[in-house]
Specification:
With 110 residues, the chain is mainly alpha-helical. It has 6 helices and no strands. It has a domain at 28-96.
C-alpha cells in the first residue's frame, strides 16, 4: 500500500519526482492509523480531517490571509500533533482499542 501511495504521489498528485516530495506525509499517515484506532469509519473521518488541514493553507492564502505562507503550511502537522495529544491523554482507552496481537512476533505454523 505504501508503494501504491508513493506511485500515486509521484505520478498523479505531482507529476514529477523531487527529493523530499513526501514532506512528512508518512508521519501524518501513521497518526491517522492511531487516530482511527483500527476502525474503517474513523480512517475515513481522519483522512478527511487531515486532508482538510492540508488544503487550508492554500484556501487561506487565496482568501488573502496576512499570515506567513510557511506558517500556514504547518497546519496539517499542527492538526496531527493536536489530535495525537488529545488521543494520548487517555492511555487506557487507546490500549483497549488496539488489536490483541499487536507487537507480538508472528511465527507461521509449518
Amino acid at each position: 500500500m505504501a508503494g501504491l501511495g508513493g506511485a500515486y504521489l509521484s505520478l498523479a498528485y505531482t507529476p514529477l519526482w523531487a527529493e523530499g516530495m513526501t514532506a512528512g506525509r508518512g508521519w501524518i499517515a501513521l497518526a491517522l492509523v492511531v487516530f482511527a484506532s483500527w476502525k474503517v469509519e474513523r480512517v475515513l473521518l481522519g483522512a478527511w480531517l487531515f486532508g482538510l488541514a492540508s488544503i487550508m493553507h492554500l484556501v487561506l492564502q487565496g482568501m488573502g490571509a496576512s499570515i506567513s505562507s510557511n506558517l500556514l503550511a504547518t497546519l496539517p502537522y499542527l492538526a496531527t500533533i493536536v489530535v495525537l495529544v488529545l488521543l494520548s491523554s487517555n492511555q487506557s482507552r487507546s490500549r483497549l482499542l488496539a488489536p490483541m496481537s499487536l507487537g507480538k512476533p508472528y511465527h507461521p505454523a509449518g
